[in-house]
């Protein structure tokens, strides 16, 4: 018998009682699920905070490093938060235009303040080096943090902008997102 069959086969009071029991069970199950969800969320927040602290410690003492975390766990956010908190300009290189756009629109703009200079450098964003030089020079002059998100294929433009962004390389954080997507010959031949 299904619950519906049992309720339909009972008198009015029995149906009401049966329905109350079903609703109580559903509320208890929802409460248990909410408690489990809250616990999972708390664990995820603690793990992210722990990884942020660990990453901050590594980045403060080293010039370069690799952060390896499962997909979707916030690697880019960890680096962007570190760059923001340590007043570093940030360049994020991504394999696709969509990922570069998402990095800028969905992540960086949520983490940084409105006074930050944001720029997407790719074939759909900007590749006009003259305009970019002027805009970045103005951002540096006005002491604004700079976040550039670019595709791997537009790193030629980004390379020309780096000296304008920072006279001191320690003031810059370069993130290569999805590093494993860079063709092996490009990494091996780069010297």
Written overview of the protein:
- The protein is an alpha/beta fold and 191 residues long.
- It has helices at residues 3-8, 12-61, 75-85, 97-111, 129-141, 155-165, 184-188, and strands at 89-94, 117-121, 146-151, 172-176.
- A four-stranded parallel beta sheet has the order 2-3-1-4, sandwiched between helices.
- The protein is elongated and about 70 Å long.
| Sequence of strands across the biggest β-sheet | 2-3-1-4
What is the N-to-C succession of helices and strands? Answer: HHHEHEHEHEH
Summed over residues and divided by their number, the pLDDT gives a mean of 75
Radius of gyration: 25 Å
Q: What class do helices, strands and sheet pairing give?
A: alpha/beta
DSSP strand tally? 4
Q: Helix content range of the residues, please?
A: 55-70%
Distance between the termini: 73 Å
Number of helices: 7
Oligomer: single chain
State the major sheet. 4 strands, parallel
| Beta-strand proportion | 5-15%
């Amino acid at each position: 018998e299904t619950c519906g069959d049992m309720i339909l086969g009972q008198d009015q009071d029995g149906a009401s009682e049966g329905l109350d029991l079903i609703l109580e069970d559903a509320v208890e199950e929802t409460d248990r699920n909410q408690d489990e969800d809250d616990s999972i969320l708390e664990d995820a927040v603690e793990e992210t905070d722990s990884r942020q602290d660990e990453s901050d410690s590594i980045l403060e003492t080293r010039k370069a490093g690799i952060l390896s975390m499962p997909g979707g766990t916030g690697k880019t956010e960890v680096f962007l938060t570190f760059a923001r908190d340590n007043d570093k300009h940030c360049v994020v290189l991504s394999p696709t235009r969509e990922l570069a756009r998402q990095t800028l629109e969905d992540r960086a703009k949520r983490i940084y303040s409105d006074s930050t200079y944001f720029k997407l450098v790719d074939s759909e964003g900007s590749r006009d080096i003259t305009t970019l030089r002027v805009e970045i020079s103005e951002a540096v002059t006005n002491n604004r943090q700079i976040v550039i998100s670019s595709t791997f294929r537009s790193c030629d433009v980004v390379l020309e902008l780096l000296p304008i962004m920072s006279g001191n390389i320690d003031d810059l954080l370069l993130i290569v997102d999805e590093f494993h997507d860079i063709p092996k010959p490009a990494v091996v031949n780069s010297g």
